[in-house]
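Hi V.,

You were right to ask for the full record rather than a summary. Here it is.
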Amino acid sequence: MSVFIEERLLDCVAYGTSGGPTFRTRKVALQSGVIRRNPFRARPLYRYGILYRNLTPEDHDTVIAAFNACYGGVNSFRLKDWSDFSADNELLSALGAGAPQSIQLTKAYTFGVQGISRSIRKPVSGTVVIYANGVPISASIDHTTGVATFTASNGAILRWSGEFDVPVMFEQDELQFSANSRGKLGLFLTADVSLIEDISA
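Predicted structure:
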């Protein structure tokens, strides 16, 4: 049975690291030349190819320990997505109720009249601030689920700012090393560390 480990893998990614949101779309070309598109996913799935280069021996050991403790792709953990890791004045999905309420943190992505909302499930401890009508208010943040609990005045417009991680797991069940990158203490990682979002976390 898999578990989620509330730890973040190394932030020291190297040049060449890639990743981000992926959709899956079926495209069918009709005789008229029109291409019909049907999405297989209601939301994107995040994937990453992480490159670690010039690691210190301690960081090298951290990656090996994480991979083994996670049983390869069994258990999942936190990753900082350097391309998208913060929210700034994001609108929450409800107004203040004048009583204790709990709301899932989300981040909106819009282009023209189209948009999608992403649930933020792994906020970073100590970074999240909840605002009611532009004024910071006291709130309790569950950093394992992304749910904020607070009391705001009735009808207040609610927003939040802060940082967040992505829940991920190792996509492959092997970790590769090479003698071409041999350091004084042994072999070092040479291949991408492939990670995929864990949407169940």
